[in-house]
Amino acid sequence: MNTFKKLFSYAEEKKVFIVLSLFFSGFATCLSFLPYYFFWQILREITTNSNITEIKQISLYIFLTTVLYGVTYIISLLCSHLFAFRLETNMKKRGLYHLLNASFSFFDINPSGRTRKVIDDNTGNTHTIIAHILPDSVNAVLFPIGVLVLSFVASWKIGVLMSIVIILALISFKLMYADENMMKEYMSALEDINSETVEYVRGIQVIKVFGLTLDSFKKLHESILNYSRVVNKFSQMSRTPFVIFQCLMMSFSALIIIIAYPMIVMNESMSEIISLVVFFMTFAGLLNSAFVKIMFFSKNLTLAKDAIDKLEDLFEKMDENKLVMGNITKMENYDIEFEKVSFGYEKDVSILNGFDLKLESGKKYALVGSSGGGKSTIAKLISGFYPVSSGKLKIGGKDIKEYSGEALEKNIAFVFQHAKLFSRTIFDNVKIGNPEASYEEVMRALEIAMCNNILDKFETREKTIIGAEGVHLSGGEIQRIAIARAILKDAPIIILDEASAASDPENEYEMQRAFSNLMKNKTVIMIAHRLSSIRNVDEILVIDEGKVIERGSHEKLMEGNTKYRYFRELFKNANEWRVVNEN
Ligand SMILES: Nc1ncnc2c1ncn2[C@@H]1O[C@H](COP(=O)(O)OP(=O)(O)OP(=O)(O)O)[C@@H](O)[C@H]1O
What average pLDDT does the chain have? Predict the structure, then answer.
């Protein structure tokens, strides 16, 4: 019931519809007995007086009560659908709200496609239980009760027989679904096999290139074996009660012999016997369908519970690591200062420990160092992706926490290693940098970012839709469009995380020019592996194990036995090695 409480809380304003739906469903169930009652009366009339006027009259009652039942049931479904669609909409809205307010760290860890899928799939999974199963469950519960009452009204013997059948069916039914953990285990095995299959298909290129077999793709193999084991266990567990349940339902009509035979032997009224037999037999299929509805209810309730748990778990994750924001909107200057900052992504693993660093407004810095040293982490902290664990991170002399979210967004532009472009026109992709910008300003940004030769490739130029048929952009070209976007944003602090990694030698020259245009008069923090691209910066900082171990100009760091010089030589050797091998 907790699941329903949670579900209903998403659409409090339309709760009245679900109450109405349950009421009409109950009312419809009661009405559904009337046609059967009148049917029994017709049988009695046919087998006794055969009064045609009376039969016509009762037939009319059957017709009217059936129509009334149909209308009431439709009203019930209409109400449940109104509630279910509002619930789905509100859940999606809540998802959107959390997405818009999610911490940056959330997007750092969670792929956007998966997040969308969790929200879309799980909100969808709540539809069946609310729109169909919930109103039907009222029917499923009331129907066997009504059948019992009507049976006792018809004959106490039929009533007793019906009671025995219903009790036995309920026991076997309960045994089938007794183990809630079994259901959970089944759902989790199903989810595992689904996600592992998706992972396998996504990596199909690697699998083909390396000729991997399913066995070597261990996790998928294990998930298949696990699924098969769980399904087998579930089937074995449900086997006996399911067979009993099916036998009961299938042989239900035959049970009337227990009552009819002694009546025939005792020479009771033939018309009474026939009407009772036919009346009893009509309930056989109806009772079965009531139980099937209960079966669907259990399954869909587990699905809905799973869906709501997953959504709430996602919302919780979106709220983790959120930066506490202040309300200062203006930055006095763009000096950046780390004061004894400690930070770790996980509780016990510290990446920065008492880290100190000062970067001056308007200067260009390059962070270099061995992989995993903490360069990107420093950049992410400056951008406000994660809050620091202790110490202070200041921009313009004020703690980053004192600024509003908009102030950080407005003043910092981050160009990622793998820039993301949307399936819109090149123009629109750039305009995201400043939605207020004019046509000329966008075109100017494209020009400064050296994108003109990209536009020349397409007849539709800046109106070319990214991802449309025949539109293929190289990594370097995508990066230049992303730089145009950052140029248009015109933020005073620019962070470039391995931003030239995607460029090939052919467009590296253009990339470098695009970068220098972007960096003019800004505070720039550039993380670079290509050491050739960082010569024009004011200072180079060598980061190792979360510390600045060297800092200075290229010339200064090349003097003496520095780590930077060592990296340079490695880089030079690697390039020479590459050129020799390419020749
Ligand atoms: N989202 C994350 N969750 C947990 N640990 C992380 C996360 N991102 C980075 N790390 C860890 O933090 C450490 C520093 O990583 P960071 O990316 O800052 O290094 P880097 O110097 O930029 O490395 P590279 O040059 O290879 O990109 C690494 O040990 C890395 O495994």
Answer: 83
Q: Are 484 and 430 in contact (CB under 8 A)?
A: yes
Q: What would the DSSP string read from start to end of 72-136?
A: HHHHHHHHHHHHHHHHHHHHHHHHHHHHHH--HHHHHHS-HHHHHHHHHHHHHHHHHIIIIIHHH
Q: pLDDT digit string (tens) for 168-221?
A: 888 887 777 666 677 778 878 887 888 788 878 877 777 776 666 666 677 888
CATH 1.20.1560.10 fits 2-319, yes or no: yes
Q: Where are the domains of the chain?
A: 2-319, 336-582
Q: Give the H or E element holding residue 161.
A: helix 156-176
Amino acid at 451: C
> Mutate which of 341, 377, 567 to test ligand 1's pocket (most atoms within 8 Å of Cβ)?
377
Among residues 122, 244, 231, 233, which one has the least CA distance to residue 173?
244
Question: By the 8 A CB rule, do 480 and 454 touch?
Answer: yes
**Look-up of token digits 């490739």:** 457
Distances (CA, A) of 231 to 182, 222, 242, 243, 305: 10, 14, 15, 17, 20
Largest CA distance in the chain: 120
Burial, 539: exposed, middle or buried (Cβ in 10 Å; 0-12, 13-18, 19+)?
Answer: middle
Task: Name residue 346's beta-bridge partners.
Answer: 349
Measuring from atom 24 of ligand 1, which residue has the nearest CA? 371
Helix or strand holding residue 204 (H, E): helix 204-209
Decide if domain 336-582 falls under CATH 3.40.50.300.
Answer: yes
Q: What are phi and psi of 524, to 5 degrees?
A: -120, 135
Question: Which pLDDT score is estimated for 579?
Answer: 47
Identify the bridge partners of residue 495 per DSSP, sorted by sequence position: 414, 525
Task: Compute the distance from residue 376 Cα to the ligand 1 centre, in Å.
Answer: 7
Ligand 1: lining residues by beta carbon, under 6 Å: 108-109, 345-346, 351, 369, 371-377
Ligand 1 centroid distance, CA of 42 (Å): 81
Taking residues 5-20, what's their average pLDDT?
90
Rounded distance between C-alpha atoms, residue 554 and residue 541, angstroms: 10
- Pocket test residue of 351, 549, 563 for ligand 1, highest count of atoms within 8 A of CB: 351
Handedness of CA 188, 194, 195, 199 (dihedral sign): positive
Residue 291 tokens read as 């139980």
Q: What is the pTM of this model?
A: 0.67
